[in-house]
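Illustration 12: Deoxyribodipyrimidine photo-lyase/cryptochrome family protein.
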Amino acid sequence: MHTNREHINIVWFKRDLRLEDHEPLYKALQEKEPVLCLFVFEQILLEDAHYSKRHWDFIKESVSDLNRQLHTYNTKVLAVNSDIISICNLLSDTYHIKQVFSHQETGIQITFDRDKSFKRYCKNNLITWTESVNNGVVRGIKNRNAWFDSWNNYMMTPQLPFLAKAEQFLDLQKITTIEKQCQVTNLKTENNKPFQVGGTAMAQKYLHSFLGGRYKNYMFHISKPALSRKSCSRLSPYIAWGNLSVRQVYQAAKNVKTTGPNNKQLAAFRSRLRWQAHFIQKFEMEHIMEQASVNKGYHKLKKNISEAYQKAWREGQTGFPLVDASMRCLNETGYVNFRMRALLVSFFTHILWQPWQDASKHLSRQFLDFEPGIHFPQLQMQAGETGINNLRIYNPIKNSLEHDPDGSFIKKWVPELKNLELPFVHEPYLMTALDQQFNNFQLGVHYPKPIVDLKKQRKHASDVLWNMKKNKTVYTESLRILQKHTIDNRSKLLDNDD
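Figure caption equivalent — predicted structure in token form:
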């Protein structure tokens, strides 16, 4: 049946847009059949509310970067608007697809369902689909007893090199013929966007600049909304979309020759790579987290939805300067540091008393580094609905005074306040009528009055959530979660091996 058709293997790229340390590509190049590199811009994701144009532009830039690297090999990534089964059917008219290689994906429910459908498709069409572990996250495990040692061993295993010859790939002429039969994705993006640019080349620049010196203030500035933009690695989108593997980053950080305080900065950075994997593994094992709290006891928690509150929060118009500055910065640039992300979620779920599910899609669309395995566990942890984490109800004023003491971050992103005296930059609602007159500033006109009573709302959230910890279902679920996800030695997540 397939005697007149050329046999090929496909490497299906997903959140792994790189050539080096790419196990599916490495394995495919060990086979005798020519390799077709494929990325599918899937309609189910293009239409999904978790994603936005900034994500697709980042992916397009990443694919373009792959094509620049692959040009030497007289090939490129076939980038199409389709779905994986449709494009395989189209390819099967001309080629016999022998094998498909890809990474396992810890994605949202629709990608998991898509993978199940594709598995059936491969079985029915006698295609071998080989999936590789992605960044040490393991599918199908029941507990975390041996997880850390497995992850650590994965991180210390030598990286897989990209060693190829042009004749190992489907060539450009053949790919051009395929493109005439399908909807090819236009990979052009706008110039001068306020977002980090996708691709391994840019990822390497960020990695080198971080390990070349930016890391020295990593822990000192990690909580500062302005200073963290330079002192943190800023590698999160490149890890989320796979321009670099976590193993590449981990080993590069491990190989930096440094001593004393600087060594502690890098140890802290490596520890956060472990924490990242820990949360993705948790989501891999608890897919309910996309829709509902992992602790079933919190399913009984009901909150009255306020469209007005949610709109003010999304637009950075709550009357609390650090919250508004953080949201406006995120909306504009796709990035704020971890503490400001936690503040945004805490403010939404605790101070505004809104369900975390209503924050999920807006934040995922704004985060350039949207990673489902981080996104959903962190939402629930910051909302106080896991039952196992300490309840943190962030005070936006306290955080403002501690982490933006000169108001520089607020002044940049809430310019309405930049000419006020510093105390009013942090708390504009303290201005008397006379203060407003002197400053030619009117609360409620030039900047919103606080949309809620901070002290009252913090107390309400604290009372309700602490009381729920006594609930039998919350307690039972907490024990289940701890038993399933606690690493045998929690200190292993800290990088103390130097």
